[in-house]
Amino acid sequence: MVSQSATKPAYATTAGLVVLVVFLALVSLGTGPVRLSPAIVIDALFGGGSAAQQIIIREIRLPRAILASAIGAVLGLSGAALQGLLRNPLASPSLFGAPQSAAFGAVLMIALGWADVRSYALPVAGIVMAFVSVFVLLSIAGRNAGLLLLILAGLAISSLAGAATALTMNLSPNPFASLEIAFWLLGSLEDRSFRHVMLAMPFIVAGAVLLWSQRSAFRALSLGEETAQSLGIDVTRVRLLVITGVALGVGGAVAVSGTIGFIGLVAPHLMRPVVGYDPARLLLPSALTGAALLTAADIAVRIIPSNTDIKVGVLTSIIGVPFFLYLIVRERRALAGGVE
Hints:
Layout lengths: L9 H21 L7 H8 L5 H36 L11 H14 L9 H21 L5 H25 L3 H11 L8 H20 L1 H7 L3 H6 L4 H23 L5 H13 L3 H25 L8 H24 L5
Helix pairs in contact: 1-2, 1-3, 1-13, 2-3, 3-8, 3-9, 3-11, 3-12, 3-13, 4-5, 4-6, 4-7, 4-11, 5-6, 5-11, 8-11, 9-13, 12-13
């Protein structure tokens, strides 16, 4: 049965989320060692204010805010797309090992000296490994995999990617590169420039377009694969396009931010009670929620008192793991016939 919330106009929620993302972006531009008010931020964006304020806003903080919104959006969109594809509420890029595998591909390029942190080889390697991880998981688990099998397969792939990353770092001939990689893998948007924006955005946009193009297929798949096929949906093609879209988006994101987990899991669950359980209706709100979550987390790591900067990937994991455990307990009760 479709919930009453599914009948609510989605445009109101979408408009509210757009306003929230823009507001958080302005707060992000004003947050840092030099605090700037929203009025000063807006003025500096349009050429006003002092030269120092323009440099701080345009060259230092604006790339960081753009990446936070874009990466959060593609992670939220990827999570909603995978949940729609597999009809499983616990599906997300991080649980399938996609970010960990993408990180391994990028780390391998750096450790072997084939690319630096600003090379296009990083997102390409990340995309390839993210694609392989999701493809392997779907191949191992099968089309009708249950919750436990998906979690176990994703855990195995994540562990393997993590071990391969650690081995690559251990064998790296440059200890300073290993230290830089270790901090980068914690997930961070610190010290990012427009070079990083240009590095990641083509892949993020391409992945988002692919995932968005399959929104009608997700609605048909919610009725089951056989029903979707009877409606003319090529399930194999949809699966391949979704895997490619997730790989493009996650690979491009990881190449500039490192591993940031759980955004793709949390965002769709926050929006599902609001916009309903239609997987097509859920995509855009999940993307906007992901953008808001990561931007808010990036603001938080700059205002939390600490001797060193807290990595945003650490904060998202601290918040995401308890949420994930809650979802597992809820799913277990549902399977046992309990009341959610």
